[in-house]
Amino acid sequence: MRKKIILLAASFTLISSACVSPIAVLTVMTHDSFSVSEEVVAAFETEHNAQLQFLKAGDTGTAVNKAVLAKDNPLADVFYGIDNTFLSRALEEDIFESYASPILAEIPETFKLDPDNRALPVDYGDVCLNYDVAFLNENAIDPPSSLEDLLDPSYKGLLVVQNPATSSPGLAFLLATIGHFGEDDYLNFWRGLVENDVLVVNDWETTYYSEFTRWGGTRPIVVSYGSSPPFEVIYAEEPMDEPPTAAVVEDETCFRQIEFVGILKGTQNRDLAEAWVDFMLSTTFQEDLPLQMYVFPVNPQAQLDETFVKYLAVPGQPAFVSPSDIASNRESWIQAWTATVLR
Amino acid sequence: MKSLRVINLDKFFGETHALDHVSFDVAEGEIVAVLGPSGCGKSTLLAVIAGLEIPNAGEVQWDGKSLASVPSYKRGFGLMFQDYVLFPHMDAFDNVAFGLRMAGLAPEVVRQRVRETLALVGLPGFEKRDVNTLSGGEQQRVALARSLAPQPQLLMLDEPLGSLDRTLRERLMFELREILRRLHQTAIYVTHDQEEAFAVADRVVVMDLGRVAQIGTPQAVYSRPASLFVARFLGLDNLLPGKVGKDGDQFTIETPIGRLSTFEQGLGSVTVLIRPDAARLDGQGELQLEGSLVKRSFRGNTCRAVIETNGVRLTFEFLSNAPLPAEGERVRLSFDPAQAIQILR
Amino acid sequence: MDPGLDGDCPAVKQLSRSRPPPSPTGRGRSPLYQLAIWLGPLLFLALFYLYPMGSILRVSFARGDGGLAAPLVEALTSTSVRRVLWFTVWQAALSTALTLLVGLPGAYLLARFDFRGKSLLRALTGIPFIMPTLVVAAAFNALLGPKGWMNLGLMSLFSLSTPPIQFTNTLSAILLAHVFYNTTIVLRMVGDFWSHIDPRLSAAAQVLGADQRRRLRHVILPLLMPAIITAALLVFIFDFTSFGVILVLGGPRFATLEVEIYYQTISLFNLPLAAALSLLQLACNLALTITYTRLSARLSRPLWLRPQRYTQRRFLTRRGRLAAAVTITLLLTLLTAPLAALAVRSVTRLDPERGQREPSARGLTLDFYHELTINRRQSLFYVPPTTAIGVSLVYAAATVVLALTLGLPAAWALARDSTSLSSRLFDPLIMLPLGTSAVTLGLGFIVALAHPPLDLRASPLLIPLAHTLVAFPFVVRSLTPALRSIQPRLRQAAAVLGASPRQTLRYVDLPLVGRALLVAATFAFTISIGEFGATALIARPEYPTVPIMIYRFLSQPGALNYGQALALSTILMLICAIGMLAIERFRIADVGEF
Prior knowledge:
- The complex is a heterotrimer of chains A (about 350), B (about 350) and C (about 600).
- With about 350 residues, chain A is α/β, with parallel strands linked by helices.
- Chain A has 13 helices and eleven strands.
- Chain A folds into two domains: about 170 residues, Periplasmic binding protein-like II (D-Maltodextrin-Binding Protein, domain 2), CATH 3.40.190; about 160 residues, Periplasmic binding protein-like II (D-Maltodextrin-Binding Protein, domain 2, 3-Layer(aba) Sandwich), CATH 3.40.190.
- In chain A, α2 links the parallel β1 and β2.
- The radius of gyration of chain B is 24 Å and the shape is elongated.
- Chain C has about 600 residues and is mainly alpha-helical.
- Chain C has a single domain, classed as MetI-like fold.
- Chain C is built from 26 helices and no strands.
- The interface between A and C is large, with 83 and 80 residues.
């Protein structure tokens, strides 16, 4: 028993000693899926004689809620990872300080959704339909080339999507249908999908690893990310030439999620926080993004890794819904969708 | 006549031979005590008769019929457990009523019978008492009432007085016999205490290591123990090694205290038991023995003396008023060999 | 029924034969003394449960019109909330009933029989309790999914074209998963209590003419009732607050209150309504717990707890052997077959061959295990599996120590004096954290524990503290029935012999409840090892636990990611099994065979 306690005490000392340091510490709050190279972090720490501490605070929605609830006494100096579906919540709650980073000039206007520069774009990714190439070939089914295709009887029982109320790609796909069909017609489209036997599941993991044909399910078409096919190649068990899945990237079939960074109000480290935001927009960090998180850098100067680009199809024109529309209608859209699709 | 026959019971627990060819009978209305040290198989024997354990071989018969296919709850026997095992979630009434209810008796009959039985065991008005707050003696009586209430054809009692203090035990011992007698109850009474066995039982079955060592009335068992084990178990400690020889027509035994004549026929080594209550101080006995009195202790109306002779210590009992010399002095004893000496092989 | 019928009396009884002293000691101590015992547990609950919970509720309600009334009225009058509440209640009741149905025969088996591999069986049946929901979903899918073994087998057997078993997104999936997770609670709580009940009580009833059915009804069930209702309460609360199972296996058509709270909080950010729903959930659980407390105090009886060597035996009859075989098979099929399927897949190549649809078993591989040790992306957050295991074990050890330290005095106080005011007040309080919305409490930590010296928001200490909140009621519940069953006379005897209350605890209570203590420790260990929700909200990314790592892999596409998740899950199962076997081996010096 005593041994256990000593072990315990020792490990806590170990853990806590990591945060005791004479140099400045910058705390970055982020979501579960955040990842970054050791090198890149080391580069920043050396340059600014600082130490970075990351705080993962659950999925995006949870992390945002935590930041909002802690706004009087912030948990961190910087928050990274809020996307355009949640952006309005943070802006309404006013948790960020504005910061017009000099590097913003290099970044295309389409990504800058907050004119006050409280939230600065860092990266983007697309939520797209993915399909099982071999399954469609075998059954002589063409991949869908538009959302309307999904209503065709030949696609009956082939599609699995996520519940927008509980899943971020699910919400993104709902927004894609709203962007494409408009606020008046998207529910008709969903009614059609229901008739065509769409399967709705609560989370991405279940859709992909339980329902998708590639992983033992019965549905060859799934809502996932544009970057999922390259993932399948990079994380294949044995090297493969062609991805076994592909993304549908025709016009207005995908929804683009843009992720933002912001300096949290009340930070004691404003200078260092600015430096970190600049760093995130700089090519060093931007070039690290694709292979760490499988998202695209917003900075056009960043060079993309070859393996990443090779298997990646990028939608030329994703469906678009303005953040202000999302902000004001999110709840009612989700509720209307729930009433139409689930009841 | 309804009687119990136990025929050649064999029971193993893993390697332990708990019952080894056990046979005996219990006649109607008879109280048989099963006597033996703990671990001798007594409780297992009861469990087998009750149907709680299945024997590996042998049979239990009631009224001439085998009980092998009769489950425990249909045998109609009663079993009073060592330390009672009362149902802790029921009051005294429900405990006693349990068997009656299982028999499906009408509520008013149950009530009537419980009241009678509690009165019989000396606990009138104890119906509503929580059994967990009863004293040891009271718990014992409730347990007795519980096993008596369904009027079992055969009642088995497993060390029923084992957990009580001495005075209470002695009182209850006689009360118990009185109750069983009055009900003309066929009963098996298991105990490790010879006093209890002798006081309660008509006949005694002495058990050792799963085997029956001796069966007989208390008097017979005490006066003629059938084996060294029985003698020792009954506290008969004056045991001497002996060798039977022949002196002309007369058989004799060489012992550390001298040569004794005997009616014993076979030659060879034997154990000689000298009964502790057979020594006389009046010198009238046929056999004489002289030694020094090592120790004497007063035990109420009797007195016990340890006498050393030829390097052997023997213990004898006398009446308290017997003219014994003081400790350390010489004493001369005499015996009547027919009563005092017994040969065990 | 008992090889020990012939046995010598155990020490317990020798001691107890001493006559009770004229005036009972130990009971009715001064209120100050009561308070001293309660101080630790209460301080803990106040600081890490009541304070955060109060803070988040206050903040949440303040975000609405400020009042409590409006959101509460909205919650209580909304038909959709009423529907959710109704579903929550009846699925929990049904799940609990099924869990008892499966668990009780198993509990009997573990309680009354001694057989080879029993410790292993006990450990195996405990593993489901710790498995992350996503992994369990994958396991069930491998077994019962559209392309699972069952469906494929049935399809080829009866030449069907579509899978006959529809499993995912059904009520059956929810029920099965709840049984899968919680059967171990019944096995342990009821089984261990049962194992100390004198088998001669049943034998006594048997001789008095009770057949098996009536022995069960009139003797065994009433005696077991305190343990059964305790287990049922814990299982019910778990099912009532079920989140992952509903979300992942039940699908979007089913929602419990907890799922609704999550939805209102995260998706709609309607904190006032979420807080009202949290209160509603709390009120339900509080009402339940109070009913339970009354019931359990009424049902508990002092029992002669007997050491297991007197209560257990080997199978003797062929029928007994057969029944045992059936029970064990059922338990293993239900509780370990899905996990075995996972373990097998973790060493099987996963990539389907081109043109062939089932993930084909193309031979065995340890690639996934090997891959775990490679930091392919040079990610800052990569940790080798040994580190994750170490972190998990440190948290688990801390939780065991903390939960036992706090739980033992609380259980002791409850057991000694279940009728005193303090006990009646605190007993339901202990259970509350279990019935509390994890989403709400998680946010409460952020709001409340934010100021020095209690700025624990980013502290790793929060994890064992959060785990202890969940483990604490289990510890108390495992210990109380055992402590309560100790005859008061035993304590009185010890007191007469000159033992101080502390010595009585050390030399009488502790050795007698040694077994229950082990059960409590096992619960604390497994709760901590498997916990995901709270850990995910608080964990420092550099020190992830094993479940966090599993989740990281599962949230990315690709064979290697999936394979690594399976490999880590298998490792988690092994750690859990080894941990539980180790706890079983662990003996307090003079606890002996208890």
